[in-house]
Write a structure and sequence with these properties.
- The protein is α/β, with parallel strands linked by helices.
- Helix content is 33%, strand content 19%.
- It has 18 helices and 18 strands.
- It starts with 6 loop residues before the first strand and ends with a helix.
């Protein structure tokens, strides 16, 4: 029988018709996971026949993230009914004995043994010492920190060297590295969210993203880059950098690495052997000193793991280019993070007066009015989430009579600040322009400096 595809895609759609349409559109690298617990009204054999038997059949208990509400005997009965439909694969929990009725099907059905362990548990090596009967194995844990993913590398390599078909990854947003690096670390398959349906587990990425990042083609020599900060799951970085790495024939993968603590970020840099990193809030100021570098920085790189880090602030490069085309004069800067400090330095370097407003350094409206800013730079986090309010509205109201332009650091077109600038007839430099400038310089550095 054939080996499993690299991607199993759980059919999590609200209706069977939507799930079936998704399954029929999957590429050759992917196979549907038919969750019998999610479609309790449908007949298993009928669904399997509609999928041309090209599916993995499972019926998940509630304690493993499933929706089965009946007793265990009823769940196994439904799973065995699925096996009678002759699917390509059946998923049976790791610690269960293979029921005789299922054993009778194994001449034409392959058996996947799976286990989901609780938070804080990492028993993968012990379990690999005594594998149950099966053709493939899946172990799923929980990621409390980004560095936890590194613990998967040795067991996955062990499985690869012994021709054991294994997938091992961690749930949660901090488990994304392990999901994406399965092939590079020795894993045989992974799980992906349907592009048109909800995730089956926290941290699951859509099939479209994983295909675009070529996760199924990664090899042991692939280097890791990523954006470190919190939040970063929305980041435009992976969609920007990965295609450029591919076009440059560079063996690098760029991922969102959710982390707001500098100590955790430092541990992740070394445990995951990162070669390049984009830093965003709140790490631009706090992480560089731990590496012996002066912040704020938004870009880190090194040739190989273990070598000293080098850094740059490509935010400054992008802002400098943007300011070239704007009317000179006093500038009001909103915010007190790394981007705000970068902005303050660039404005002062040009010899323009600068007034900074933040929660830690409030400024009265009369002071803003007397300062008469020609430009306003929005360097707070407001605008990241839908419905975020206008930052420092009193200060902006005081600047309305003099301001001729605005710069928005948030990489969205519909922020409240962008609306304030446009509605006032002011020239706006949107965040997308700054992103293109700083990300372009980052990509060039990663391609030039990271890896061989």
């Amino acid at each position: 029988m054939a080996a499993p595809p690299f991607y199993f895609v759980p059919l999590t759609h609200p209706t069977w018709a939507e799930a079936l349409a998704c399954a029929r559109a999957l590429p050759p690298e992917a196979m549907a996971e038919l969750r019998l617990d999610l479609f309790p009204e449908e007949v298993p054999e009928t669904m399997i026949r509609a999928l041309n038997r090209r599916c993995l059949v499972t019926c998940r208990r509630a304690d493993e993230g499933g929706a089965w509400l009946g007793d265990e005997a009823g769940r196994l009965e439904r799973l065995l009914a699925g096996a009678q439909g002759r699917p390509a694969w059946v998923d049976l929990e790791w610690d269960l004995e293979v029921p005789p009725a299922l054993a009778d099907c194994l001449s034409h059905v392959r058996l996947l043994r799976s286990v989901h362990v609780g938070p804080g548990v990492f028993d993968l090596e012990r379990r690999l010492e005594r594998l149950p009967r099966g053709d493939a194995f899946k172990w799923v844990g929980h990621a409390a920190s980004l560095a936890d993913n590194a613990r998967l590398r040795a067991p996955l390599g062990w499985a690869r060297d012994r021709n054991v078909t294994l997938s091992a990854f961690l749930m949660g947003p901090k488990g994304i590295p392990g999901r994406c690096l399965q092939a590079a670390w020795g894993g045989s398959f992974t799980y992906a969210q349907p592009d048109d349906g909800p995730a089956a587990a926290p941290g699951q990425l859509t099939l479209g993203r994983m295909l675009a990042w070529r996760c199924h083609r990664l090899h042991a020599g692939c280097g890791l880059c990523g954006v470190l900060g919190q939040p970063v799951l929305h980041s435009l970085g992976p969609g920007y950098h990965n295609p450029r790495f591919q076009m440059a024939f560079k063996d690098l993968l760029y991922l969102p690495l959710e982390c707001g603590d500098p100590g955790e970020a430092l541990a992740a840099l070394e445990a995951l052997e990162l070669l390049g990193a984009s830093l965003t809030s709140p790490l631009k100021d706090s992480l560089p000193p731990l590496l012996g570098l002066e912040g704020p920085l938004n870009t880190l790189w090194r040739r190989r793991a273990g070598e000293p880090w080098q850094g740059a602030n490509t935010d400054a490069i992008a802002l400098d280019a943007a300011l070239d085309g704007l009317e000179p004069g006093p500038v009001l800067v909103l915010g007190d993070g790394g981007v705000a400090e970068t902005t303050r330095r660039m404005v002062l370097r040009r010899g323009w007066p600068c007034l900074r407003v933040s929660r830690n350094c409030p400024v009265e409206a009369d002071a803003v009015r007397g300062f008469a800013p020609v430009g306003v730079v929005q360097a707070t986090r407001l605008g990241m989430d839908p419905g975020d309010p206008l930052p420092f509205p009193d200060a902006l109201a005081a600047a309305e009579g003099s301001a001729r332009w605005g710069v928005e650091w948030i990489y969205k077109e519909d922020t409240a600040f962008a609306a304030w600038a446009r509605e006032g007839g002011r020239r706006l430099v949107p965040g997308g322009v700054l992103f293109e400038g700083q990300a372009g310089a980052q990509s060039a550095a990663f391609i030039r400096e990271c890896g061989g």
